[in-house]
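ugh ok fine here u go
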Amino acid sequence: MRLLCDAHRLLLAGVRGAGKQPGELRRSQNWIGGARSGRAVVVPPPPDRVPALLSDLERFIHDARPGLPPLVRIALVHAQFETIHPFLDGVETAASNAERSIVAIATLVAADRRRLLAAPRVGAVGLRLFELLPLMPRFTIEQVRRKLETTFPTATAAVKLLEELGIVTELTGQKKNRCFSYAAYVELLAGDT
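structure:
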């Protein structure tokens, strides 16, 4: 939580909201949208509940048990943090942009999955590789071979199929030690940074 408070302090330095306790958890009720809390779009939890809610969130962040995929965990952490809204003033524009990015990424992945499933030569390795792309959007064939515990020719065929479908692109232009990218995904991730 210290990291989040420090980040908030830095983000608000010299901008609108700089006088609203930057880097400190809120000590009063806030709301989002509307001139008063009764007409607000969202009313976060009362300030006395914020520390306990953030502690619960921090425990979830550090929970090492397997379960949800990392991207889903990140989305849940983001949504819960926005719901708690622990600071008086936030980065409302950034939250809206992040929400649009999450929708765009989910739309891209779903469309690419449909395209892959419609391909006549898709096999189990190709599907497994596709499911790994959000976790390793830039990769070599050797990394795919190791991660999927398969042969080099099988890994090559899976990468080639995704390349032919336009899902991944080759970055190096070389015949050996080629690097590939899920470029559309990387571009969406980089869009808000």
